[in-house]
Each structure stands twice: as C-alpha cells, then as structure tokens.
Design brief:
A hairpin with a 3-residue loop joins strand 7 and strand 8. The strands form two sheets. The protein has a five-stranded antiparallel sheet. A three-stranded antiparallel sheet has the order 6-7-8. About 25% of the residues lie in helices and about 40% in strands. The chain has about 150 residues and is an alpha+beta fold.
C-alpha cells in the first residue's frame, strides 16, 4: 500500500513560485520513486494559463489555511517594499527607464556639446524620445544656454 500523501488531487493549496506564494490546485500526485526524493504534485496556479502548470516537490506546497494566507500576504508586502526601494535607488542614480514621469528632461555635457533629451509619454502607451544636440566652440557658451 503506497504511503499517504500530504495533499490530494483536486485539493485547494498554496504554492511557492519564485519568492511568492500563490493560490493553486493540486491536479495530480506522484509518490516518491527514489528514497532520496519525496512525492511530487502537479500544480495549477489559479488564474494562470495552463502553460504554467508544473510538477513541484512537497516542500513548495502548503495547506490552504489562515496561517499560510497570512504568510502569503506578508511575502507580497515585503516584495512590494523591495521593488519600491529598488525603484527609488534607480531614480537616485539618475536612470531613466520604463515608467519614467512625463516631461522628463535630462541634460548631458560632452566636451563642448550640450545634449538635451526629452522623454515624453503619450497616453501611457506610446513613448517618444527627442534628442537635441547643440555644438559650441567653448564650454562657457554651453553653460549660458543651460542656465537660461
């Protein structure tokens, strides 16, 4: 008689995918074939395309309970905090990338050249970047343009 598995087919579970925990359903079970490896569970993540369904070891699957739902919420909050800190750090470093604010203006000095880059977002879908480079015979003239 095969050993009793911790999760049954059709059971609502929580499952780790990367650093976060997601609601899922145990679709199939597989007993341990080797003594070293434990049982595996074929998981479907709720709301996800079936292409994401996968066999996972028992360590990644959790019972669907209030305690584990609280753990899921804590991990989401921690992840959001880390993402927010990374975005703040990127802004401090002067990086402009996806999601930059409307009307962002950056000024670069390259020898006696002033480059002005305007990043304009239209309707949050279309991104347009305009670059204007002006050449000056001496750095003082370039400074005057930027100051005015």
């Amino acid at each position: 008689m095969p050993p009793k598995l911790k999760f049954q087919e059709g059971e609502k579970v929580l499952c780790y995918h990367g650093l976060l925990i997601y609601e899922a359903k145990c679709m199939k079970t597989q007993s341990a074939k080797d003594k070293d490896k434990g049982p595996k569970f074929f998981i479907h993540y709720n709301g996800w395309n079936k292409n994401w369904d996968e066999w996972v070891p028992e360590e990644r699957v959790l019972k669907f309970s209030e305690v584990n739902l609280q753990k899921q919420k804590e991990l989401i909050q921690q992840h959001r905090k880390e993402v927010k800190e990374k975005k703040g750090k990127r802004k401090l470093e002067g990086g402009v990338g996806r999601g930059s604010k409307r009307g962002t203006v950056q000024i670069f000095y390259v020898n006696y050249r002033v480059c002005v880059e305007l990043a304009v977002l239209c309707k949050d879908v279309l991104s347009v970047c305009l670059s204007v480079c002006l050449f000056f015979p001496c750095p003082e003239e370039a400074e005057l343009l930027v100051l005015s």
